[in-house]
Amino acid sequence: MCAHFLKPYPEGVSTKDFDVSGVPVRHYTPSTPLAGTLVVYAHGGGFVVGGLESHDDVCAEIADFAGCEVLAIDYRMAPEHVFPAAVDDCWTVYKWAAERADRIVLAGDSAGAKLSAAIAIKARDEGLGHVAGQVLIYGAYGGEAKGGSYDTMANAPGLTTEDVKFYSEIYFGKWPNSNWDNKLARPLLETDFSRLAPAFIVAAELDPLLDDSVRYAEVLNAAGVRAELRTEPDLIHGYIRARHMSEPAAESFIAICQAVKGFCHGGG
């Protein structure tokens, strides 16, 4: 299905595929990249599907709009590789990036947003690198999958509450086990959100994950971390796929790219 939405690269964007300590990545370079800055992107797909090809045009367009190099991660996925494999792979790539860039922007959609939030927490805890910002697109951050938007949007198109539970059990293992209690698996379990990088958090209104984004923005702001929440009316989970055929989706994607650019250039 992803191939149906793929678009050609913007003019001037080039790529190179390689491995970082065994983790496949794709490096996007715009025609005139900003020096010393790198966007690290984790794709969505419920920790089960997706990869370098599924989000290829998304990353190319972000690189072009922001004028920054982008590094996309092809992390290991479930069910063959359960938590913490994806986090470990993203951390491996982050450490590589931190050795080469003065500023890192963590970005991702859906499962990738959760991974980006987890890496921001781990980077702060370990004092490694400089995360300039987080751009988190309709992510799952550890809500209980009941009540609120999990009920009101239980049968939303694009993603249902049962889908969320299904993907979670594939990624964490069947409830209960210790994976479900790990803050890198469910960032909302963190008890100290201070000193995290500022965040631009995007949510779709017609998405059971809506309240996760609302809550994550709340806890960051309460801890003194600047977090902007943008909720997209009448859009569903995964809508950035439709950015070339839906004006609201296009406007949201432009805002996402602007946020990335702002963090890359020291604002945001």
Tell me what the structure shows.
This protein has 268 residues and is an alpha/beta fold. The relative contact order is 0.14. The two termini are 33 Å apart. The protein has one domain (2-264): Alpha/Beta hydrolase fold, catalytic domain (Rossmann fold, 3-Layer(aba) Sandwich). The chain is built from 8 helices and 8 strands. Strand 3, helix 2 (56-66) and strand 4 form a beta-alpha-beta unit. The longest helix is centred in the C-terminal third of the chain and has 18 residues, at 247-264. It has an 8-stranded mixed beta sheet, sandwiched between helices. Helices cover 34% and strands 21% of the residues. Helix 2 packs across helix 8 and helix 3 crosses helix 4 (111-126).
Give Rg in angstroms: 17 Å
Q: Spell the H/E element sequence.
A: HEEEHEHEHEHHEHEH
**How much β-strand is present in the residues?**
15-25%
CATH topology: Rossmann fold
Which secondary-structure class do the elements indicate? Answer: alpha/beta
Q: Give the strand tally.
A: 8
Task: Tell me what the CATH architecture is.
Answer: 3-Layer(aba) Sandwich
Q: Give me the CATH superfamily.
A: Alpha/Beta hydrolase fold, catalytic domain
